[in-house]
Give the backbone structure.
Amino acid sequence: MTTLYEVHGSVALITLNNPPVNGLGHATRLSMTENLQKANDDDAIKSIVITGAGKAFSGGADIKEFGSPKAMQEPNLHSVIQMIENSSKPVVAAIHSVCMGGGLELALGCHYRIAAPGCSVALPEVKLGLLPGAGGTQRLPRALGVEPALNMIVSGEPVKSELLAQIPGQKLFDKMASSAESLPDEAFAFAQSIADIRPLPLVRNLPCKHRNGDAYFQFARNMVKGMSKNFPAPLKCVDAVEAATKQKFADGLLFERELFINLMWTPESRALRHIFIAERAASKIPDVPQDMPQRDIKSIAVIGAGTMGGGIAMNFLNAGIPVKMLEMKQEALDRGIATIRKNYESQVKKGKLKQDKYEQRMGLLSTTLSYDDLKDSDMVIEAVFEEMGVKEKVFTELDRVMKPSAILASNTSTLDLNQIASFTKRPEDVVGLHFFSPANIMKLLEVVRGEKTAKDVMATVMAVAKKIRKTAVVSGVCDGFIGNRMIEQYGRQGGFLLDEGCTPAQVDKAIEKFGFAMGPFRMGDLAGNDIGWAIRKRRYQEKPGMKYSKTADLLCEKGRFGQKTGAGWYDYVAGKRDAIPNHEVVAMIEEHRKSLGISPRKISDEEIVQRLVYSLVNEAAHILEEGIATKASDIDMVYLMGYGFPIYRGGPMLYADQVGLFNVVQAMNRFAKNPLDDASFWKPAPLLARLVAEGKTFN
Ligand code: NAI
């Protein structure tokens, strides 16, 4: 049963019972109305208490119902709230732990509310590109006051119940319980004490005014506009709350409804809802059961104290997990530790980290030059030079010393994980953990599943990823895994665009206007153009027929590796990250173009964006078909969390779905006719062609 019914003397207790957070899906709403009816029909019942079982009062609507007819299927949340308001007996919400979204809207429909301290209260709909759609924008300002209510609705951030209770004049909570434990008893006593009071108080009847309404809402709009670029919902929240102060309750409710439905259909809300679901889906691996036993990971070893090793270590120190670092030479260790220290010290200076926390974290870090010291570590992550020979040496040693249950992970970004696993007698314990640089900051972690990686190893590292607050996405073994394999095609298009007539700044500007954090050339300068150069040199050997623009090689031959050399596609001033266009680079591109006999043409921003984004989409379709990624939404997560794809577009796959795969393929067919592009690449991946033929989408 999704709600439970009990009688305590003259009080009926209805308990939401839909784990994990008592979501208000259709079955729960239906069960709630049945029990409300039951309580109203029973003459022995004088008052009703609604509460939630387990970890929440209610976390709100069931997000899986969003955008589907089920959300509005009767009884919808509006009708449930109306039924509560119309109850002939007083209804008391007994609120604890979590009271969010629809859960708070439901509570606001009750005649009284009693709350436990420590409860997180929020209307977080704006985070999904929406606004509260079941009266929240009309009732919360009445109960809490206009300004605090607007703050909560526009930010979506949770506020603790005890803080809300201190707001002067607030009518959100009629009473604070002394603790979560005593809430049920205090709620029963309260329900008995108000059983005979008539008329029943309703939030909708409270006045809702702002002393200085017009000026305040103008100010609020200016503030919100600046902060909510590209997202329409926050401004609509302001409109809805303003309506609460200017319109009759019933009219305000209708207005809120209209805004809610309009927002539901915006691409931004679709993107945010997609991300919400995709993030949760990414942690689930189709053939690994949710209850798979996991290995105990209480300590970590990191091999290599370079750029990545240091950042990787910090993730675990931040999570309170001890780390032992191994290097070949003491100097390398000292350098690595000094970098970690410097990183933490700058956080302390900025006030982002307390001194004692910093010391605590450094206290968890130890170092060694001997593999034998690693024998007690539960997991080891290798981050040494990217050479198979070096990896072989390291993994042979690890196989010798690590205890039998240990997980052996590699941070390799390009090498064959299966080959690395084959250097050990326990390939089932070997997995790839591909962190992104800077590893202590970037949210994305590609978990690379080898041919023989054991399921419990996969389950364990996914849980570890959560502990260190990474968004983990599983990738199969292939060159570049999901993210870098796609970015190679994107980079190749960037090169062709230069050859055909663009400047680096023009390409960057176009894709940045589309919403990318950084265009391909600024990104190259940040990552180091020598990395791409090394990969291309390998490709020239492996795939001699593959077409590349040579412009980037010419740039590297000049030693313009990017920010680290102060010069790349752009110039850089020491200590600053501003990219300053360089006329010699532009002249170099023009000269090269001339040497190829190409007369430049004017290329539109639209073409630039389409070629860059659809190159990601087509490669992704191959990746999906090959089973390297198991879900389209995983690929979206990789691009959103690791490559600066605009959040409000939901990732390359959702974006392609929204453009329409038929339209995507049409554009690709056009690009294939361009003799300066690579026609063979633009042949739609079989999966993409099939989806178009069947009128389907990736997601
Ligand atoms: P790095 O050159 O900064 O650090 C490598 C460290 O490993 C050096 O401190 C070196 O002394 C140490 N080392 C080398 N051989 C060793 C051995 N046999 N035993 C112990 N220590 C040894 O390199 P970086 O950038 O940290 O890369 C490390 C790994 O991470 C590579 O596999 C790379 O492909 C991968 N990676 C790098 C990314 C990046 O952006 N730099 C991103 C993702 C992965």
